[in-house]
Give the backbone structure.
Amino acid sequence: MSLDQIQRDAGHRMAQAVEKVGEDFASIRTGRANPQLLNRVTVEYYGQPTPLQQLANFSVPEPRILIVNPFDKSSVDQIEKAIRDSGLGLNPSNDGGTIRCVFPELTEERRKEYIKLAKQAAEDGKVAIRNVRRSARDAMQKLEDDGEVGKDEHERATKRLEETTAKHVAQIDHALEAKEQELLEV
């Protein structure tokens, strides 16, 4: 494996870590209805755990109301139960064909709790990025130790790796800042 390949692989894995943090942030609810909150909800559908997105369409007619329209009307009760048991703090109701999820106003205490969750998700992402950096640096060092690359090449590649790491960490910091602002909005 060459220095460029190591660099590309590390950049790709760091971008995946940033993407994962973004997904984690999407699952932290704010006072507004957002269909992405239900991304992690799985429904027991004909004996198989199935992602909710595969079973229904979503719409947001008002800022604090999320409507779930199941493709198969016989699955309404299972979907309602899965949303209720998801730990999102939602109490869905159904009219036989659609499910309404009304998002309650967030209390100050709940907002702080969600900010802590967001900070933890951001920190987990940064740790993942640093782990990628460490493994890439080890691989680069091995190439130098084996005599496949010179010291100067190794130092330039290490500098580029540090820049890539800093860029991805900054993306997570920026996303965290935006999520905090979103959570503090009343």
About this structure: The chain has two domains: 3-26+107-184, 35-102. Strands lie at 42-45, 48-51, 56-62, 65-70, 93-94, 99-102. The longest helix spans residues 108-145.
